[in-house]
Here is the input.
Amino acid sequence: MKINTALILCAGYGKRLNPITLKTPKPLLKIKNIALLEHCINLIKQVGIKKIFINSFYLKEQINKFIEENNFEIEIKVIEDGNVILNTGGGVLNLVSKINENDFLVFNPDTIWNKNYSLEIESMINLYYKKKLKNLLLLVDRKLSFDKSLKGDFNLDNNLITKDHKNFIYTGCQILNKSIFKDRSIENFSISEIWSDLIKNNLLSGFESKLEFYHATDLETFNKLLDL
Here is the structure.
């Protein structure tokens, strides 16, 4: 089994990186002269994904122009959230409504993705299908986070995610199945609402990353990342 489609969430305001995000959307900020979005696209290509869907809202013209002006040698479509921002959950659901596949990868581009993640993501995909899962989040022990101010989101035990202890951080990569959005409509809601419902039923799954975690959390952290 194979996943053919990846979604990249690029609609947010990036307020924690003001003032540099007042004129440039966060996905187009550069680390090592490469935009965060391009780092993400390069990883997706490395994994062997065939199609990418990107959502946009804030400074959407710049996202469109960036994709149009660069030949990434992979099929990419930019889908606007619409008249109102849809948050992470609504944004994913809006994109999902445009694709035929049932299973897909989702990325947040504010993580500094690199090709070293490809083996972990391939292992994630194998586990996802082997265990016939409907969701799988890539988590990392907070000890591996470059930004030491980040608090943990979850606990992870034998691929089961719970909320006790919270020693693990969500990296911004997950595999989802369309079915977990049943009874939800395209509106502003956070993907964390879906996660919380799954946790209540012991149905939220996780995969542990062993790589150091770099994330453009805020302006202070971003400036430190530029010095690496």
